[in-house]
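Researcher: I've been going back and forth with a colleague about how LRC66 protein might be arranged in three dimensions. Neither of us has a model we trust, so I'd like an independent prediction. The organism is Atlantisia rogersi, in case that matters for your notes. Sequence below.
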Amino acid sequence: SDCRWDGELSLNCSFTGISAVPEGLSQTVVTADLSYNTIKTFTCTDERDGQWMLKHLNLSNNMISELSFTTCRNLPVLETLNLNGNAIHTLTLDVPVPAQGSKTDGQSCRLLPALKVLSVERNHLHAVPRGLGLLQVLQTVHLSSNSIQQIGLDDFRNCSQLKDVHLQDNKITQIQPDAFRDLNKLQVVVDLRENALATPLPQVLMGLNFFQLEVDLSNNAW
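Model: Here is an independent structure prediction for LRC66 protein. You can compare it with whatever you and your colleague have in mind.
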């Protein structure tokens, strides 16, 4: 392909017209830019193939519609994941609850253990991706320009390291009063601009630390 590879750490396949992630990539690559192509699927390879040293993955502006990271055991140091500008309607980050009495391999809580920034703007999400709480060091989540309709009580549960939440330009009409209550490290912005909120949210806002937090609620229905 026309991908540009520096031989060790950086791969740039942006605007090369590829329809799939190139095979046989070196596991030493740290930054991979696969943006602006026609990629429809992204699948984590089996852990038996070895763990990648990938820290920054850009899959923005492709044709991905559904994505699951429930089998990702081979991206232990991935820090930033850019999925902007795809057609994603389902993004799964957790694993099915095991049947009663069955044993797990202990890996379910270690999916993408180093991920700090998740960006899924300009997609077709109707809900906050399930399993954000499993991303134990997640600090920033960008979910603007989707079709998210509500923020549930458990959507951000256990996201104890979360600092920035960007939800502008969705279709949010309802936010559960305690949805952000335990996010003690929120410090930059909860961005809810350009949604469909019709009533003030005193219970939600009272649970946030206004001394270090910026909240943007402009251009709603009230």
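Researcher: What would you highlight for our discussion?
Model: I'd start with this: The radius of gyration is 18 Å. After that, consider the following. Residues 202-206 form the longest helix (5 residues).
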